Model the fold of this input.
Amino acid sequence: MHSETLVEGHKPSLKRKAEKHTGEAVNLCYQCGKCSAGCPLAGEMDYAPNQILRMLQLEIPSLDEKILSSYAIWLCLTCETCVTRCPKDVNLPEIMDYLRSESVRQGKVNPKAKDILAFHNAFLDSIKATGRLYEVGLIAGYKMRTMHLLQDVDSAPTLYFNGKLKLFPHMIKNREAISRMFSKAKDWQEGQK
Done:
């Protein structure tokens, strides 16, 4: 692992921050490309998974900016196909998760990822409010954030009559514990800044 002593006026690279927060050694990647070959969404990404790792390895500030504003970090499904294929066991989904949070924190989210981020936030809001996923609340939160108000509206009656959508949420008993978890996560995130 790298020393944290830095020349005055220089901030740690994105690679060093990712390694610190994830415990993953980015330099273990030797660019075999198995992660990208197995990734189900690599063809949709602006940078393939192995390219993200290579850009991190180079520790060039302009590449760090490209990573944080890339669409690739938002398309990662965290399906872990890359980890199972990696001969060095580099946990790329863990790194991608950190990169997404850093992208949000720095306000560099790719504009094409706005719907993905809206879904992510609506999902977390649903869990925070009820302690579990409430599909109607998730859908409402997502649609209000994206203004895709009529998208898929024709499937709602079928889902409702098949018992897949409940009008009222099922609340867990100890919602205070969920609130404490969210508070601790927020405090931890604030401490990372």
